[in-house]
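Suppose you are handed only two things: the residues of a chain and a line of SMILES describing prephenic acid. What would the bound structure be? This form records exactly that question and the answer produced for it, so the two can be stored side by side and reused later without any lookup.

QUESTION INPUTS
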Amino acid sequence: MTCISHFIHIPGTFPSKRVPSPTNISITFTQRPLQLFHLLLLLLLLLLFSFSPSEQSFPWGSAAAVSQLGRTDPGHSRIGSNPDRAFFSNGERPGRLLGLSPLRTTIRSVQGESSSKSATELPQTGDQMNGIHSRRLQKDLSSFPRPLSVSDLSSVPENGSKMRISFKGISGSYSEDAALKAYPNCETVPCIEFEDTFKAVELWLADKAVLPIESSSVGSIHRNYDLLLRHRLHIVSEVQLPVNFCLLALPGVRLEQLKHVLSHPQALASSDIALGKLNVTRENVDDTAGAAQLVASKKLRDTGVIASARAAELYGLTVVAEKIQDDLDSITRFIVLARDPIIPRTDKPFKTSIVFTLDEGPGVLFKALAVFALRNINLTKIESRPQRKRPLRVVDDSNTGSAK
Ligand SMILES: O=C(O)C(=O)C[C@]1(C(=O)O)C=C[C@@H](O)C=C1
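ANSWER OUTPUT
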């Protein structure tokens, strides 16, 4: 008995040698006493039956056969005593599925020729079942987004090559620092504009993009919020970079000799107090490392740069002053974007970003936020952006998306 219920519950691992189990043979014996010749013939047939290759590959069909054998002797089979018990995933009873009564099948399986016929019929039915079942399963699974695994978060893509991360600026910029912090062994892909970092990923020139979204001292980087609305990439990670703004100059140049300071507007704004103490003009450039390269290549002795110590090393400048930012604990938050979304797991907390628009009306934002408050969901940041007559892309379940 234990044997019967055991192998019925393990589809796909049905050991064919169990089919002619002693229990099943003894069942048949009680029904029809046999001569020695018949017994030998029977054993031969059973041996043939048990080594049939098709038997091994269609466990469901075999399970049905055993359940029907058991039905001849209610005392030997719990399964046989419950004809309504379903063994197929569609709830169909085996006897009905095969178009045979359980008793007839049992007799055939021990009486000669027809037993081998029944043995081949059963696997075919199992085959059809497996086929229908797996086709249905494949269709269902293909409509789901591919779940990312731990390997997607590591610095090496599946094919063994280095992860390519696009960032805005040139080597030595803070954005590149953020990319290297997130993926220490990555290959960084410099881009001229923020939008180019998105396009690099969309066109498969890079695997991911890293871009600043917020500075703890200066606030949101709105340009990147707007780009997020217009592109189809997904936020998959976040990097928080403590930014150490340094004042750089050509080797041998002293602080008092500087008349101009070049840098990215964010860096200049974050270093307002220190720059106010110097008698210098402030000039915006596209990125901090680009400013360092410009001063180095043009040998501008009266011009300083706000950039990182790594940029000083890369472009042959010296650090004249360190940590010149107003807020010494300033942190810039970067987001990592990818073509595929991350499926949140339950073993650790995940941050989620949601974008929505509301129709005009009193209290609409209040009502939308109540959805979170009533469920005790903590919000880390709220940002509002004007739509500027640009349609917002709405993503549906299949992640195709349309403009609204
Ligand atoms: O110019 C750089 O180095 C950048 O990486 C850009 C950027 C920014 O856009 O905010 C990034 C971080 C710093 O706060 C300053 C500049």
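WHAT STANDS OUT: Residues 169, 173-175, 212, 215, 221, 243, 264, 266-267, 287-289, 332 surround prephenic acid (CB under 6 Å). Residues 1-37, 42-134 have pLDDT under 50 and may be disordered.
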